[in-house]
């Protein structure tokens, strides 16, 4: 599991893994069976990984009790988010847009704030904008997309010390995740396009490969 109701562990002994943008029950099951701590369900319509509430409910049910189910949103309308919560059992919310602390805090679930990092970003100052976040996910900034681009940021900008769990994301894949973990020592890693055979299409072998690579450095 990724986070409890209270997130209070920082830099635990094992690197946790979230596999994001799952659209098929069998891919979610493959991720969980191979050691994923969390799966991400994309509720952002422009994403190639977007799923309906019905699809999300089926995946959520399949992995219940085995992994944390994270709903990923980008600047959602409150009514839409409310409807997702009514239809899909989720454990954690991930906000990947311009949502402020008050917006993220109102849903009664632990939440992760994604912060998009460019060369000029003052990461510490950015993280201070969401004091109630349970954890932060650091992803690459790209001007034309909110995430899921397969782009990495400069890992030297990843904070060495933080009082909250930090998740490394952006451009991770089976070929670079071991190096990323060794370089940055994140609390968790998050992958989406790096385990796809085509845009939005997850690949079971790549999912397994990614999880094996992380296991080797756990
Ligand atoms: O996956 C998407 O399409 C997406 C769209 C909008 C916001 C976030 C999105 N995905 C998240 O982006 C990061 C990094 O993805 P990648 O591994 O570089 O493809 C990851 O946290 C996804 O959850």
UniProtKB/TrEMBL annotation:
- Which pathway does it operate in? Amino-acid biosynthesis; L-tryptophan biosynthesis; L-tryptophan from chorismate: step 3/5
Matching InterPro entries? Aldolase_TIM (IPR013785), PRAI_dom (IPR001240), RibuloseP-bd_barrel (IPR011060), TrpF_fam (IPR044643)
Where is the chain membrane-spanning? none
List the CDD domains hit by this protein, alphabetically.
PRAI (cd00405)
Reactions mediated catalytically = N-(5-phospho-beta-D-ribosyl)anthranilate = 1-(2-carboxyphenylamino)-1-deoxy-D-ribulose 5-phosphate
This entry's Gene Ontology molecular function terms read: phosphoribosylanthranilate isomerase activity
Q: Where is the N-(5'phosphoribosyl) anthranilate isomerase (PRAI) domain?
A: 17-212
Q: Please give the biological process terms from Gene Ontology that the record holds.
A: L-tryptophan biosynthetic process
EC numbers for this chain? 5.3.1.24
Instruction: Report the leader peptide range.
Output: none
Q: Tell me which UniProt keywords the record has, alphabetically.
A: Amino-acid biosynthesis, Aromatic amino acid biosynthesis, Isomerase, Tryptophan biosynthesis
Would you identify the family this protein belongs to, as annotated?
A: Belongs to the TrpF family.
Name of the protein in its database record: N-(5'-phosphoribosyl)anthranilate isomerase
